[in-house]
Amino acid sequence: MKARVSIRLKSAILDPQGKTVQQALQQMGYSDVSSVRIGKLVELEVGGNDPIEVRTKVEEFSRKLLTNPLMETFEIELVRDVV
Amino acid sequence: MKARVSIRLKSAILDPQGKTVQQALQQMGYSDVSSVRIGKLVELEVGGNDPIEVRTKVEEFSRKLLTNPLMETFEIELVRDVV
Questions:
Q1: Which of A71, A83, B43, B65 has its CA at 20 to 30 Å from residue A12's CA atom?
Q2: Which domains does chain B have, with CATH numbers?
Q3: Distance between CA atoms of B15 and A67, rounded to whole angstroms?
Q4: What is the per-residue pLDDT across B40-51, written as a single tens digit (0 to 9) for each?
Q5: Is residue A66 a contact partner of residue A7, using CB atoms and an 8 Å limit?
Q6: What is the mean pLDDT of the segment spanning B15-30?
Q7: What is the largest CA-CA distance in chain B?
Q8: What does each C-alpha distance from A74 to A39, A62, A71, B14, B37 come to in angstroms?
Q9: Above 90 in pLDDT, residue A81?
Q10: Strand, helix or coil at A6?
């Protein structure tokens, strides 16, 4: 089963990379872009067919390895394989 | 309007960061994670209410600034503000 983990900085955390991109966009003339936040997108292929079991596993290792729970939040989407 | 740009490495491009995460997961006992690809998630607030116009603009600066078209593909989702 394919799993997609979207990782975002918590809203209270400053995002200097996003700020830099926003400034670059403004210099290019895109003056109405008012907020840019940059996160990560981790896509994995995980064994197992039970969505609840797979989601639990992905949640577990997202917390342990993929994210920093102090600074980031994450969201999991599962994509079932087409049979 | 909120725009979300999901940026992924093209499938032909090696992803050493993803490979490293996969190996770390295997060492932690998640042996059935078979493929890990790491991309970027850029979320922006863009002025304008016409979805076609906003999408065209986001597509334009995604190609010019946010992505490397030789190595990456991107996908745009628009989220309308709740009025």
A1: B65
A2: 2-79 (3.30.1280.10)
A3: 18
A4: 999 999 999 899
A5: yes
A6: 97
A7: 49
A8: 10, 8, 10, 25, 16
A9: no
A10: strand
Kindly tell me if the per-residue pLDDT of A83 is higher than 90.
Answer: no
Residue type, A75: E
Helix extents (H) in chain B: 16-27, 51-61
Tokens 């403004």, residue located: A26
Token pair for residue B81? 């503000």
If contacts are CB pairs under 8 Å, which of residues 48-67 in chain B contact chain A? 48, 57, 61, 64-66
Q: How far apart are CA B73 and CA B70, in angstroms?
A: 8
Give percent of chain B above pLDDT 90. 93
B45 neighbourhood in chain A, CB within 8 Å: 33-36
Chain B hits for A42, CB-CB cut-off 8 Å, are 18, 21, 36-39
Region of residue B37 (phi > 0: left; psi between -120 and 50: alpha; otherwise: beta): beta
